[in-house]
Description:
Elements: E1 3-4, H1 11-14, E2 19-20, E3 24-29, H2 35-50, E4 54-58, H3 63-69, H4 77-82, E5 86-90, H5 99-120, E6 124-128, H6 139-154, E7 159-165, E8 185-192, E9 195-203, E10 212-218, E11 221-224
Parallel strand pairs: 3-7, 3-8, 4-5, 4-6, 6-7
Antiparallel strand pairs: 1-2, 8-9, 9-10, 10-11
Helix pairs in contact: 5-6
Amino acid sequence: MERVATGIPGLDELLKGGIPKGSSVLVSGGPGAGKSIFSMQYIVEGARLYNECGLYVSIESNPKNILWDMASFNWDIKKFQDKKMINIYRMKMGYNKDYKLVEDKIDEELEIIASMLKEMNAKRLVIDSTTSFGIWFDKAILRAMLFKFVDYLKELGCTTILTSEMPNTKEKFSAFGVEEFIVDGVIVLFFTPPYRSIFVRKMRGTAHDKNLHPFEITDQGLIVKPKETVLWEATK
């Protein structure tokens, strides 16, 4: 099986070498858990370590704000932007309660994303975050819309990270309780100040570590400690 190494120290050891190529993986966590850092690190390390281009798509945040948020890390994102190895794009969704208009707008944005990926020859894609879909769709149609969205992303030939908000609990792994069923993998980030931990909930097509492990956020990004484990009680 071909794998895509995340480049996040310690994580690929939990994944037996990396994410299965072409998979879609949901990265879930509460506020401040490190989802956006994880996602950008996946893009940056792809460029820095593996010479793979990546596209970071935000549904809410302005690209300038994303760069500002990431300024404390020693990643030199601008260098890779100048080399056209990394691009940051904000989906232009607006706000509309008309389901058909929103669906058409998503289709339009997906075509733009596909064009950007093709132009870059990108192998890595991040969508941050799927929680934003809850603004436009009620739960009855959310699953169908997300399935269509993720299914389209699979056709783009990238290995994709999608993020989702979730309560800081071990019983629920996404914002709406449907996202984890339409992706190939789920990685959960817990933050119970001052402690952080990571759990590979599922990963289709490969064995993976099933324990809870601590991680830290440093000026280099996330560092997972695969040799250490955490008790589930510590996530409360």
